[in-house]
Amino acid sequence: MAAMTLLETHGLTRRFGGLTAVDGVEFRLDEGEIRALIGPNGAGKTTFVSLLSGRIRPSAGRVVFAGEDVTRLPAHARVMRGIAYTFQITSIFARMTLLDNVRLAVQRRMMRGWRGPDARALDAAAMAVLDRVGLADRATGIAGNLSYGHQRLLEVAMGLGLRPRLLILDEPTQGLSDAEIAGFVDLVREIARDATVLLIEHNMGVVMELAHRITVMEMGQILAEGPPEAIRADAEVQRAYLGG
Amino acid sequence: MSRAVGLHIAVLAGLALAQFTLPEYHHGNLARIMVLAAFASAYNITFGYAGMLSLGHAMFFGAGLYAAGLAAEFGGIAAPGGLVLGVIAGALMAAVVGVLALRTTGVSFMIVTLMFAQAAFLTVLYFGEWTRGDEGFVIASDMRRVLGLDLADPATRYWAAFAVFGAVMLGSLAVARSSFGRVLAAIRENEERTRMLGYDVFRAKLMALAVSGAMAGAAGAAYALLFGYVGATFASIQYSILPLLWVLTGGAATVLGPFLGTLLMFYLIDVSSSFTTAHMMIVGFALIGLILFFPKGILGTLRERVVPWLP
């Protein structure tokens, strides 16, 4: 069965004053894949995924998600279409419990208008998500008291609570210990069984291990794209990024 | 019934019983306090739960006050109708102001709401021919009747104030415990994260403001109809600051905090002004003490330390 295109961009461009952070990007992402987005600092990776999630508006170009043009949709409406985004700089509800954090994500998915789900169904669904990332035993703790690595996991749990079709992870392993990274790789693999994952990542070990395909960005444009082995062998990429 | 709901029912029951036991002077005070506490509760939805620091709530209170007052004066619409008009006026005004003011956040929101409220205040003065401006006007006693009962009668007035306060307080409790209330708290804590969980932040805030405006309008209309006087003072900046003060005293984002804060501030001024003209200085010292020992207001601090289940 040919993979279905989940997300594509056409001529996607974002200028900040005189700087073109994302420059006419043509991008395609297949349903079910794990895609890594790599590139040197300032290549436009975070700007690019922010355009996908709707956090910022493009200067030109289009974003098509699951066959629908979402370019004009605000961020919250795109989330409801199935695009979830986890922040590069951890963004959680620090003064609430872990359970409350995840509940807010799950509640959005289960809400009809302003009517929420009943408390028991909501709790069960939220606990299931916390269990998936291994934080179930800390559910009633305050999120702000968690270690940094656990806060990153909580952030992913909030993404999962939305049951997205596309989960965008912006440098999820930054600041994690090696043991935490190993656990994280397993988690992403497990998530990818029922969602498409787009991952910005600097840790090449993680990228090579996880990604089905890799997209390399430089100066706001796509420099190369292909399976991990091809990217590793690509001389251009080595010059631009891998420091070879 | 959860203990949270039980506690609030118990407080209402206590207020109902106080009607029969309080001496006349305090009985009259409490009726006034309950109406003002309804206003403070309205403010608490915007400021406490949704985290928006409005400095313009006098315009919503004033909208209700003048809707009821002018309807009685020129439309011959008596008390129950006046209350309904007050609710509509408050909600409508909040929705219109919200659409414009909610383009801003933080300090800008504070300034924009203050500006709108000043504009509303000046509008009241400008149309002095009808509103009688600062001097105000008295609502005719035949307009202040509900089901054949006279609102000027202390017992009737107490029950009417109790009904308005009870409705607003239980409404606040319902908001605080609802999915909608949780979304408001999320916006207060981390707006960007809430947006990226798929919530329409603008709509939620607008809704909070409209609910708050409706409650403030109800309080304003009740104040006009129960105490029979309508004047521009109630639309002035002072009445935007007072609910903030009451809420901060009792505890922002607690359902009972606004009532407690209003009660304490009212009596602090009442008692201190009986033996000194410098009673505002005493209020000042009280506020400093509050910030030192109860930084989150009385109930907010208690919730943090003793009763975490308090809504």
TrEMBL record, chain B:
UniProt entry keywords in alphabetical sequence: Cell membrane, Membrane, Transmembrane, Transmembrane helix
Superkingdom classification of source: Bacteria
Transmembrane regions: 30-51, 83-102, 109-128, 158-185, 206-232, 244-269, 281-302
InterPro entries, per database record: ABC_transp_permease, LivM-like
CDD domains: TM_PBP1_LivM_like
Main localization category: membrane
Molecular-function GO terms, alphabetical: branched-chain amino acid transmembrane transporter activity
Cell location: Cell membrane
Membrane topology (UniProt): Multi-pass membrane protein
GO cellular component terms given for this protein: plasma membrane
Name the UniProt record assigns to this protein: Branched-chain amino acid ABC transporter permease
Biological source species: Thermohalobaculum xanthum
Taxonomy of the source species: Bacteria, Pseudomonadati, Pseudomonadota, Alphaproteobacteria, Rhodobacterales
